[in-house]
Write a structure and sequence with these properties.
mainly alpha; elongated
Length: 143
């Protein structure tokens, strides 16, 4: 189970950049999961991995090498981060599924990322299907 968690956290660390557009709820959620991980494993990161250059999965590899020395707090942070990521991915999958036709119709020329597709759907709210609008509200991507 620890290996699975480390792989998921690796995914987050690979995908998440230091600068986030606060308007993008997916990026904000990823930042939250990353913060949970780094705060919960701060002791391990500074003790075992302080000389490791971030990137390319090196930090996760370092923690993996010391997995038998992880504190319960760090282990919990892994589990909590995975739960957060699972919710983010489920919400995103649901929203994309429900908004697929609207994205094709109204936002096909929009470059994904930084909340641009969500902005496009919001700008076209009057034309977007009820199904999509409800899904966006359900997952908290829209007020």
């Amino acid at each position: 189970m620890k290996s699975r968690i480390m792989l998921v956290v690796l995914l987050v660390l690979t995908l998440v950049s230091p600068a986030f557009a606060t308007e993008d709820p997916v990026q904000a959620g990823l930042q939250g999961a990353l913060d949970t991980f780094t705060e919960g494993c701060q002791q391990e990161l500074t003790t075992f991995c302080k000389d490791v250059t971030p990137g390319g999965g090196r930090i996760i590899a370092c923690l993996y090498a010391f997995q038998d020395k992880l504190t319960p707090r760090c282990e919990y942070a892994f589990y909590d981060s995975v739960g957060q990521l699972d919710r983010i991915l489920s919400n995103l999958s649901y929203a994309i599924s429900e908004c697929r036709d609207d994205l094709k119709s109204y936002c096909a020329d929009i470059k994904p990322g930084e909340g641009r597709l969500l902005d496009c759907l919001n700008k076209n709210e009057a034309k977007v299907s009820n199904r999509c609008n409800y899904a966006l509200k359900d997952v908290g991507y829209k007020k």
